[in-house]
Amino acid sequence: MKQSVRAVAFKSKYLRDFSMVDERHGSRHLFPATEQLPALSRAIDEEFKAGLTSRLAATDGRADSWRKLQLWKSGTAFCQIINSERPDHLHIQPVYTPEFVTRIAVVQHITQSESGGNRHWFRAYRDNAFLPDIYLSGKRVSFSSHAIERYNQRSTNNHVNPTVALVSEFFYTVITVVKLNDTNPALAIDAGGTLAVLPFEETATGFFILTTLSPHEVIHLAPIVPMRRLYLHYGPAFTQPAAPIFNIAKHTGKLLERWRRKQPLQVRTATEGSLRSCSWTSIVQLVNTVMHGEGFTEASRLLFHDGVYGPTVLTSTPTPPAVAAA
User: Fold this and answer.
1) Quick one: which of 95, 140, 194, 310 is 20 to 30 A from 17 by CA?
2) Could you give the C-alpha distances from 296 to 66, 136, 285, 292, 299, in angstroms and in order?
3) Would you kindly state where each structural domain of the chain is located, as residue ranges?
């Protein structure tokens, strides 16, 4: 029997009368189709740059830290505010160069039908090529359909496509390993101001995320002893940092406290809703104001998590050197 092909109209003034379709290879299907990715990437990039000032759009590795921070915040807003609820469900994500310059990539969703259900993973495309996949300490990450569905039910309170919500949170945060119900390891992440606990199966080559639990579904949660550090990074090659600087124990403690308090989801505010109705140009104009309000300074810097080149970036404001005593 011939398989039907899903067709979804792409919503952008930079590429009109264009429908995204599935690409099928037996039990595997890819969305959008690979041959469509160059046109989609060009349109999204034009859309992104249209709201930026010419100076910000021209940011490269030689730019000062403040401009790179502006572009980072703008890129995050473009993906998570302007484009998180796209009616065509196209998934876009920021990617970072080694010089901390933010770019926007189109994400292809790959679904593999297996005897136990569907397995999902993702790859990013930009500049006429696939970018290095995101790995977790040298292993590929894939998700069950159940993990995606439960994440949407238990860790979000907005109207974002569930796949977009999970991938946006998972791949751009610090991953913590915890002990679930005294025996099983699980991953824990900050999700919507609460905690998402993700039981997994681990093999020599990958992590398979089985489901998503909220604080209310977890009977007991504790840190792994000794603590296990995992890092998200671009490409399969990975070297464990010899001298990590991020305080994973403190971060884990904060997540465990959310579990103990049964921290509820953050309520979607009227401000958030109004931002989604703003024009992209207006959002960019707000970025500087927001950055100052969040305490960024000219000395603030973007840092890759413990120096591992990947999608998890943190900000730092260097402490001025102490004045020597007279």
Assistant:
1) 95
2) 9, 29, 16, 5, 8
3) 13-131, 133-264
